Amino acid sequence: DKGNHRHFMLKEIYEQPVVVAQTLGSYLRPLEGRVSLPVPEFDLAGIRRVTIVACGTSYYAGMVAKYWIERFARVPVEIDVASEFRYRAPVLEEGGLALFVSQSGETADTLAALRHAREGGQKIAVVVNVPTSTMAREADLLLPTHAGPEIGVASTKAFTCQLAVLAAFAVNLARDKGRLSAEEERRIVRHLAEAPAAINAALAYDDAIEAMAGSIAQARDVLYLGRGPDYPLALEGALKLKEISYIHAEGYAAGEMKHGPIALIDEHVPVIVLAPSGPLFEKTISNMHEVQARGGKVVLISDYDGIAEAGDDCLATITMPKVHPLIAPIVYAIPVQLLAYHVAVVKGTDVDQPRNLAKSVTVE
Ligand code: M6R
Description:
By secondary structure, the protein is of the alpha/beta class. Helix content is about 45%, strand content about 15%. The longest helix has 20 residues, at about 155-175.
């Protein structure tokens, strides 16, 4: 049932404050200022390396997790798409944890990669939305997302819930490895607990995003730029737009622009820049200026301070609530989803059932 919404995708976008709160609720203990995961049968503190494997949007959630795990737990993380991982003779050593991320828990390549990692002696952790799925059954450490059934082929609420779980996982691993003080953990838990309200505040920009969708819908190509943990969001934004509006889009690490893609820039290529205030803001903005100097039309997604500082010469700006850089990827997912949604509606495509795509890809 779509409720009052025109499409399942929009309904699922709007469910995010609630389902992210539900998901965080099962991993955070806000009163104690602690994260608590289900206790695995193996010793998490003994993990020396994490290998993340997934496909599509779930892979981008995994990319964000790599930043978090390395930053907080100081454990090296490797990440690969499932269809590559299996066929490249990955080196799987003792003390390795393989972490699989999947909404459905049935994606053929991810499942095959899981079995490959198990044969290679890895402990298996699974972040999955369907609790009865095959991957859920085969996990040593099951980390469910509580997004509820996701009907739209374009993944939205599953993604933000995956991020919520992965953030909790990173913090828990960091604590177990003795890399996080109780005070730091308390601070992080407080920031994570702010995510649902920040998502809600981000949803308030729906009308503003809808209003600019018409101009993006005319484009043949769109670029998305981000840095650090917001770089995967650029990739996710481009995937979402491609999937449902059929407009060609690419996501790039903002600093990679001048190594090639900047050649594409002219006044016909909108560039969506994801730049929350924080340690990487100035660097991203200087890449944005390189785009503008070549006539590129920029849509800047930032917070009030960021837009006050850098929003002047943009085609449009989208103001996000000011959030801690840790939760920015969760909050900045919202405008990226809404933009793809409204552009697809302008183009009149079948938003919930885009051509050539299936909700669950159970063939290799
Ligand atoms: O069920 P999974 O999370 O394993 O699915 C992975 C991808 O097929 C999926 O994320 C796909 O990229 C979505 N259609 C993206 O919106």
